[in-house]
Structure formats: structure tokens, C-alpha cells
Amino acid sequence: MNGSCVLRRSLVSIALLSAASLLIALALTLSEGECGDLGFVKGADISFLEQVEDSGGVYTENGRQRELLDILEDHGFNLVRLRIWHSPADGYCDLESTLRMADRAKQKGLGLLLDIHYSDTWADPGRQNKPESWRGVAGDALADSVRSYTGEVMAALKARGALPDMVQIGNEVICGLLWDDGRVCGPYDAPAHWEMLGKLIAAAVSGVRDGVGSADSVEIMIHIDRGGDNRGCRWFFDGLLAQGIDFDLIGLSFYPWWHGTLDDLQSNLADLALRYGRDIVVVETAYPWTLGWHDDEHNVVGLPGQLHPGYAATVEGQRAFLTDLMNTVAAAREDRGRGVCYWAPDWISAPRKGSAWENMTLFDFAGEVLHSIEAFDSTYAGGGRRAAERQEEVPVK
Prior knowledge:
The chain is of the alpha/beta class. The chain has twelve helices and twelve strands.
């Protein structure tokens, strides 16, 4: 099933109906549910949550301790994203941990995006290492392992009543996955490697289908990192589609210090929407609310030169950036902008574990929710660039 929303595709036809017929047609279209229950995705990757909680971290709102998921849901979030690693050394983000977290999300009525890394640790444009248990596996045997593992993960989630709404086949796979078999950048940009990448992704898609029932609806996402890089996006998706891969959603990362400006993103979304005819989710983003720090961990973003022009490293600047980002995605051509997912809003510095993301969470250094979270209260939240001029700063230690 392509991730398109029937309601959006029907607007032109509906406009030609009589007023009475319009109401009937609109009611029927909404009841079909082909947009899913999420509408515009407002998501949060909360894969650090168990680790933060186990390390003594707490979240508060108006000084009162609250469950993180309750805070997110009360501020408009409708989906959580969870990464899963094959056999992580510390046990976090393995299958059992993912099952627990998926349970928590589904019990709150939230949607779920499962991000399968196909690695024991971080997989991104600079590293796509095979799980240790697959180190000597290659070719068709590797594809078989991918299909079997994916099916087992999906079946386990289905058995718990926590089936994902969306599944990512790999994480930021601009250069492929499961290197070097499925590697496609630089000297690996060759037909044999693209063919193998296609075989691995097709095996993963088959694994998703193996683990769910025929009546289940799970959308397949392919996620790369190039939010503001149209040339890079075209190169990758043209190459992937040449392998006959069937998928529903394009996922992009957009961090302005790596991926350009909001104008770059807007131009890229416009082209991708028309070129590929698929819905697009900015599935990773974040912005700092301060350039200060609280613990001894080196922060990923800490220099003024890393900021997007026009958006200060303040709570208001963070809110303005998120508001403008969501409006940019929502305004994509052909209504293909499906939503935005904030990466690691929960990764606060805890008493027994520091954070390299502490100044880019949606919570201050004491764990109190920031009012920048209000950008998610409505898809079209207002504020925008003009709000950034207020320069409200939260005190830091």
C-alpha cells in the first residue's frame, strides 16, 4: 500500500460535487481510514528513555514529575520512533527493550515507527557495520538472515499487540547498509553493489510482510540523511528504484548544521514530491535551546556557527525553528509532506549518565519541559521566525 492519503487525493473531485453530496463523500472518505489515524505525523524518537530513567533522570511539567509519554501526548505528539539494534552490548534498544517501549507507546494510543538499524550499534552515513553474529555472512545467506530477523522482530511485536505503523529499512542508508555487501558510495557505486543493496532491502521488506497478517497495514520507509541535498537524494532514490524496490515513504534527516537551510529543504521536498510520488517525513531533526552545558559530556552542537541564520539558541528560537520546519513540510507539493519527528527530545543529562544532546532536548537541565514543545500542540503552531526575535533564554549552570 502506498502511503498516500485518499482524502487529500479526493479534494479536487469533491469540489465538483453538490453541497449535500460533498458532506456524504467527505464522511465516507474519512471513515475509510486510509490516511491512518495519525494524520500529520508529530513524532519523537524516545529510544534513550529507558536508559535515562534507569540512570535517575526524571521529567517534570510545572515542577511536577510526569511520565514522558504523557507530556508528549498532551502536547500534540501522535507517534514515537524507536531504534532497534541486533545485539547491543549494553542491552538497550535490543528486541526485549523495544518490545517494552512499544508496549508503553501503544498503551498511550500513540503510533509507532520502528527504525531497524541492522547493526549492533549506530548505523548512519559513516558506518553501517553488520551485526557481529553476521560478520562472516554474505550474499544470499545475508539476505536470508535479514529476512528471517526482520520477520522475527515483526512477529514479536504483533504478538504483543504493538505492531508498528511504519518500519524503516535501515537508518540513514544514503551509502547503503550491511557494509560492504550493500555499500554503494564512492568506489562501491557500481551495479553489483546496487543489486546487492536492492536484494537486502527487498529481503527486509519481505520479512516485514512475513511477520504480519494479510489484514495488517504497515508502511515501509526508506530513510536517508540528505534533507537539504536534492542532488544526493536523486542519486540515491534513482539508484534504489532501478532495483525495483517497493516502498511507501521517504524519510529524511534535517539538521541545519549538516543538511543546509529550511529553503534548501523546501526546494528538495518540492522536487522529491513530484519526482517520486511518495509521502515524505522529516524523520530526524532537532535544534538547541541553549549553547550552554550542564554535564561533562561534549555536546554535538555548541558553537554559534552551527546555528541556522535567524534562529537563536534559545527556547523561543527552538520553537520558531520547529514551527517553521513543520509548516515547510506540511506545505510540500502534492500534499506529500507527511510529518516531522524530533530526535531524542528525552535525552537529558541524568544523575548517573551524561548526555551529548542535553541542550537540544525539549527539557531544561533540571528535566522541566520547555515551552518550545508548544510547537507540536498544533501542526500550524504560529510564531515562526518572528518569535525568535524575543530571545528568551533559560538559565544554565
